[in-house]
Amino acid sequence: MPDLIIAAAAAPTLAVRGDNRRFPIHRIYCVGRNFAEHAREMGSEIDRGSPVFFMKPADAVLPGGGEQPFPSATSDLHHEVELVVALGTSANGEVATDQAMALVLGYALGLDLTRRDLQAKAKAKGLPWDTAKGFDRSAPISELVPAAQFGALASQRLTLSVNGNLRQQAPLSDMVWSVPEIIAELSRLYELRAGDLIFMGTPAGVAALQAGDRYHASIDDLLHLEGHFTSR
Ligand code: MN
Question: What is the set of domains in the chain, with CATH numbers?
Answer without folding.
Answer: 25-230 (3.90.850.10)
